[in-house]
Structure formats: C-alpha cells, structure tokens
Amino acid sequence: MNYFSTRGSGPVSLPVALVEGLAPDGGLYLPESLPSIDLPPSGPLADVGAAVLGAFLPPNATGWVRQALAIDTPLVPLGDDDHLLDLTRGPTAAFKDMGARFLAEALAALAPAPGDRRRTVLVATSGDTGGAVAAAFHGRRGLRVVVLFPADGVSERQRRQFTTLGQGVTALGVDGPFDACQRLVKEALSDRELVDRHLLTSANSINIGRLLPQATWFVKALADLEGRTPTFVVPSGNLGHLTAGLLAARMLGSSARFVGAVNDNDAFARWVEGREPDGGAATVATPSSAMDVGRPSNLERVAALTASDESLRARLSAERVNAEETLAEMARRHRDDGRFVDPHTAVGLVALRRLRGRGVTGPVVVLSTADAGKFPATVTAATGAEPPVPASLAGLEGRSERWRPMAADLESLRTHLDEAGA
Ligand SMILES: *Cc1c(COP(=O)(O)O)cnc(C)c1O
C-alpha cells in the first residue's frame, strides 16, 4: 500500500509517510486506495484492529498491533438506541492513547532511527495529545518526545501528564494558542536542515500513523451493532477522529452517517455549509478545550475523501454546540443518571439530543473521547460534584514538573531542540 499527499505528491511507502508526518508539499498523506473489507465478527479491539489493519501492514506486524490496541472500547447503551462508544480506558483516559501507542510501535518496528541516533517526535497539544504521546513514547530507545503546548491553555492535570515523566520527554509551554503550536510543528517539519539534524517527525493527527488505528473502533462498533447502520457523532477539533471514521465507512462500504460536533471553533461547520472557513479564524477558548482548533489540519483530508465520493459527502453533517449548552448537558446527565461526562463528550451528547429532537431514528453512537476526571474544574463547576480521578492518573499531583516557556516562533524552537538534543 502506498500513500499520496492531499496536494498530489507521492507515492511513498508507509515508513516514509510515518517519518515525514507532513508531506513535502505541505499536504497530508492518505492511502492510495482503500481495501474493501468485510465486517469482522464482534470481538475485542485487538482482534478487530488486527483484521482491519492487516491490509496496510506487513504480516509480521500482528503482534505489536494487538499490543497497541489491547484496550477495551465497549459500546455503552444509554437507552432508546443511544450509545456511547467508551474510548476512555487507555493509560491517559482519552481516545488518543490508542493512536499514540500504535504510532510508537509502528515507528519502532517499521522506521527505526539509523545507527545509534534517535528520532525526535514533535507533538503540539491542546491538552490530551501531549499526555497520550508522552505516555506511549517515554522511555523508548531511539525516540525522544518534544511536547509543544499553549502555556495558558491546558488544565493542570493535563499538563502534569507530560511534565512529570522525564525520560526522553521535553515539554515547552508556548506563548500562544494551540494553533501557534500546530503551526510551529509544521514549520519545523518543513525545514530540511532541522529535520535532518534531529530526525524530526510528528505525532499529531497529521501523521497517518495516528489515523489508521482510529478507524478500528468505528469498525468494532459497527460489528457490535450487528450490521445495523448508525449515525456516528464525533466530538471534533482537528478532525483526525472524524477522518478515521470516514476511512472505516469507505472500507466497509457502510452507509453510516457522520456528524462532526464542534464547539464555537466552527471551521468544519462552515465548510459543511459551503462557506469560507473564515480566513485567519482566531481560536476561541471553550470548556471543550481539546477541540479549540481554529484551522483543523484534517479538513484537507475530509475534503479529499469526500471530493471523490458524493454519497459520503451527503452523509456528513455538522452541529455547533456552545459553552452554555455543553455545561447544561453535563449537569443534566449527572442529575438524571449520576453519570459524569467530560466536556468534549458532552458536545456530542448535545448533538445527539438535537438529532433525536429532529426525528432521527436508528442507532446513534456518540464517541466518548475522554474521562470526566481529566477535567475536574470544568466538571465540578457544571455538576456541583467532583468526578473521580481515573486510576491511571492518580498520583500526578505529588510529582515534580519540568517544563520551559517558549516564544511562538521557529527560532526559539530551534534553540530549544538543540539544547535538549544532547
Ligand atoms: C483531540 C480530542 C478531540 C478532538 O479530536 P480530533 O481528532 O482533533 O477532531 C475530542 N475530544 C478529546 C477529549 C480530545 O482529546
């Protein structure tokens, strides 16, 4: 299987696409063609994942694929054919764990650094990615991770997930929003000299190695629904998760519908409506901060996938959910069924409520993207009660943090990479 950039360059092999992250022409890699697959039997994600990803990987990859995806992703019934796809059971209690683990294994197995050098994995985070990537990569030989985060834009508990690990994890607090962090990663990856000096690669969802594994749980959910055709509601920011869902539907020939649920950062909704994505869209801070993305990278992939597939385009829609609705949904779920939901999943649940209000029938699957305990301040403010800390995150408060502030420009990043490069 080869990969082409959304802007036309290629073909390249999977190891090259994994290492480059961003294609040299500034586009994002997609598989040259998608294999047609049959709906596998319902079963653990590791089994379904190995079956789905087999077509993309060498035959001897099955062992590490199964290991990366050995995380439970149950479909939780909410009644009335409403379902939550619970993706919060990984090491940092967010769906990004699975993709990060897969990418770490894939780089080690398919693209090891030459000689005794090591690769530098750059990652911009609006909250969850940094923790998931740091947990998946830290302590691995031949790899180090540099996390760029908005110094003022992540919760303390999120920050502690990548500032307390050490062992090959460097954290840089950028003076700017997430979009500035994302732009810096792209600039660094486009700088040949910097790339060669540090063997730079990216662990953001621009990397095809994050996307492929995310397709697996859409397939698993379809198998769990025994072939019934659902509407998937995907709480979206950078649109990597939604893109993976579209890949899954294309491979299965499923006519599932997809709703991208966004917060006030609504570039995707504007695109669906055929309007301009709003030039320099400034990022708006919301309670669902991991979705505060003004310019979603993967919109380019969504556009490419749907350009060649009218029917898929027609099954794709958007819902905008504001902060007030999000917090009200969190309060209501807690009051009515004692359930804590995180602010991102809550955006999806508001979208679900609207769909039902408009008479949408059949199964609706809301992707539950993080555990409520990762966002104690927001959840407590919304519900008046404190959510339990996920077991995997307990004890972070007691550890010492290490991170450095950084200006939002490439020269500063260059200096920090060299300093941390020893
Ligand atoms: C990253 C993230 C999202 C958005 O996913 P995208 O692939 O960026 O659209 C939603 N919820 C949570 C909790 C996240 O961490």
TrEMBL record:
* Annotated ranges, domain Tryptophan synthase beta chain-like PALP: 87-367
Q: What is its EC number?
A: 4.2.3.1
Tell me the cofactors it needs.
Answer: pyridoxal 5'-phosphate
Superkingdom of the source species: Bacteria
Could you tell me which InterPro entries the record lists for this protein? Ser/Thr_deHydtase_PyrdxlP-BS (IPR000634), Thr_synth_N (IPR029144), Thr_synth_N_sf (IPR037158), Thr_synthase-like (IPR004450), Threonine_Synthase (IPR051166), TrpB-like_PALP (IPR001926), TrpB-like_PALP_sf (IPR036052)
Substrates-to-products reaction catalysed: O-phospho-L-homoserine + H2O = L-threonine + phosphate
Q: Which UniProt keywords apply?
A: Amino-acid biosynthesis, Lyase, Pyridoxal phosphate, Threonine biosynthesis
Q: In which pathway does it act?
A: Amino-acid biosynthesis; L-threonine biosynthesis; L-threonine from L-aspartate: step 5/5
One Gene Ontology MF term: threonine synthase activity
Protein family:
Belongs to the threonine synthase family.
PANTHER family xref list? THREONINE SYNTHASE FAMILY MEMBER, THREONINE SYNTHASE-LIKE 2
Instruction: Provide the protein name.
Output: Threonine synthase
> In which organism is this protein found?
Gaopeijia maritima
Task: Give the encoding gene's name.
Answer: thrC
